[in-house]
């Protein structure tokens, strides 16, 4: 909606007409790129915002029209054409200058009037009746297109009723007054025609919503004025009635055209929104599909990169291991050569040591023989000593066994004493529990007694409340009875007073 070009290049300060705006809305926007989801989303949001703004303006104008009724004057009936084809199009008033009263008011006062505000909102080709700031003379109103009265509605002054007073001499049909039965049918026909015309015009105005997006200049000749101050009769001839009906029909057709344009724009915007939403959904699906494909390709690339890195790491490890093995082979060969030399020298030493050890072995064998003989003598002596010590240990063991038996008897007696102590302790616990249970029973009994006392006190309080309520009710009854008796005495006094007067 923001890319719509104006259709009237000659008048740049004015807004474009309804037809040109409708054509421009139907034309596709070249600046919109369907491949860019951001621009599509922005276009959808602007379309929704403009539709909501137009609907709000239409509802405001409808409520304003319904709150302010309109009545056509003699000048409008005299200047309007009887046929629908002779009514000028809304675009014919696009180049009209504003009314002199509005220009003078804007030149004198910087503050804008409600008429100017509504005129700016509705547009110059909206065919809406707008309230005026003040009354003008009929000459000034007839000078603008010579069809409608510009002093239609006083701003801030309520209109009592837009309907004319019924009269038997006024009729809205083509039947002459002289041909009607003079017994009262003329008044009925006039009232029926006036009510039908006003109700039909009001219903048509209510059923025709106006689109404010059709920005075009307001024609002041299409503004219906209000009745004049003297409330004069508008027309006495059938021609005026047909002109009024023609004006109403032209207004209805204009309103219908505006409604159709609004509906066409709304349908077009809805279709464009639907197509844009479908395109956005398709773009979202394509984006999701491409995202999934991209993720799959990224996963494949990452997996291949990981495999390549693993292969490179393995190659590096193999190269490092090969270098290490070469260095290890060199070190092992050098160490093996050194160890062979050392082993040869050790072998020569070991042969010399073996010869030496053989000689020492011979000497040791001889010495071992002498040692074994001496060890046998020592062992015999030790056996005798051990036998003596065993006999001595047996006697000591018997003494210790007797002492142990005595100790076991004493331990058994001490255990019996502990059992007695435990039994006495358990008996003490049982007695303490019995005492505790007895006290608990006593406490429960006392608690029940206290609860019973509380319930009895609540019952007495309830009876006291009931007695108080009964006492208050009896007092009220006594007061009411006293008032009734006093009223009866007053009535008796009033009745006896006139009787005494009559007797006298």
TrEMBL record:
Keywords: Coiled coil. Residues 1-11, 18-31, 73-107, 158-176, 191-221 have a biased composition (Low complexity). Residues 487-496 have a biased composition (Acidic residues). Residues 1-38, 72-110, 125-239, 483-504 are annotated as: Disordered. Residues 228-239 have a biased composition (Polar residues). The keyword rRNA processing does not apply. Residues 245-360, 418-449 form a coiled coil. This is SWI5-dependent HO expression protein 3. It comes from Rhodocollybia butyracea.
